Amino acid sequence: MRCHLKKVFLLAAGLLILTRVYIYMRRAESGNLKGSLIWIWDKETWVEDLEGHYLHFNISIKVLAGVFHPSKKYLTVGLSSVKREKGRYLQDTLQSIFSASSEEELDQMVVVVLLSDFDVSWIQQTLEKITDEFHMRLSKGQLLVIHANEDNYPPLTGLKRNFNDAPDRVSFRSKQNVDYSYLLHFSSNLSQYYIMLEDDVSCSKNFLSSMREHVGSVGNSKWVTLEFSKLGYIGKLYQSRDLPILARFLYNFYQEMPCDFLLSHFHRLLMQEKVIRFRPSLFQHMGTYSSFRGTFNRLKDEDFVEEVADNPPADISTNIETYQTNTVDKAYSQGLEYFWGVSPIGTENYILVVFHEPVLISRAQIVTGLDGKDELVYADVELGKTLVKKESEVECSGFDKLGSLQQGQFNEAAVQKLVPATVACLRIRVTAAQTTWVVVRKIQVWTVKADQTT
Fold first, then answer.
1. Residue 195 pairs with which residues in a beta bridge?
2. More confident: 354 or 305
3. Conformational region of residue 436, where left means phi above 0, alpha means psi within -120 to 50, and beta covers everything else
4. Quick one: CATH architecture of 314-447?
């Protein structure tokens, strides 16, 4: 009986709303209302039963430290931090963000830290540490510290136990959704893009420049989320214009599921069906203990690199027979795919990287083999200075030897000392025959930029 009455009640409420809209539109058509049609919610149309299922998004956010920059930045880096039972990583995370970035990059960036714990003494102590260590970043408008009082939060206990989570787990993840909702809401007008981090993350060197290149590579294609880490909600990039609706989305469904689940639904709802993830990952989880119960956490991103290779534009070729679609250019692309060559492999075989423009190389790394098999056992790594273009191919000459592969690996971090001049190509030259196939997973080159030369 109650269920029947409730359905009748809701139907009547719906008819009332539709009637009001109909009257409003008829008035507009009759000329009683001038100008364009505007939809206005009238609180009187909300019956008591419906109001109980609607969350009022009332937020009062305090800026505890930092100053607003007068102009919009390129990127906002947002993270939320709470008091932990074990381990403290926030300051290390901030130090990683700032030390991994050049001053030019920092001028295009603002870091927003939400201190989301309700322990006032912890907030005060943490704030003092941040202001003491990062006072220059605060004064330059590169760092903002904010807080939302507990009375701004919706109910955090007695919530639905979806996924059969324990009540304290449900409260923790639900509060986390609201934390990020407030953080996104605050950050929505600070920059062109926003990236989500946690408070226990280390960053790849010059991550902003790497992201800018990837964003440029997407071009005019429509996207909602770009991913720069495979872990949870670390390294998820959004356009700031989408932040208000994302903030409201997390807030409305805060008790339904964890944040990373909601974020995966969000990009699908906005018609980005596939995940767009770039590799290598630019952010790594470094915390040993979780912020929930202080449990031990082994979470790591195997695709993370501390310094992303430049790999300048180049043409890649080889005279090693290729297996199926595992072409040699995949070893240079910095993705998960690789080159797979067929045996026999002899001293006449090579892999050649011909740069489109001469480059000054600072570091070079070659990684071969997969799961302990198919390593390139005997090969030298060489740099060539001169290109000779013929009708059907390009030849490189004037080679200097950098070194030899050891157990299928090569990593020379001081190339500039060995070959201080610009080069036209890099060659991996096989020096002894082998009967096994070969996998080349990575060919990585780091270059010296023009402003770094003396």
1. 77, 237
2. 354
3. beta
4. Sandwich (2.60)
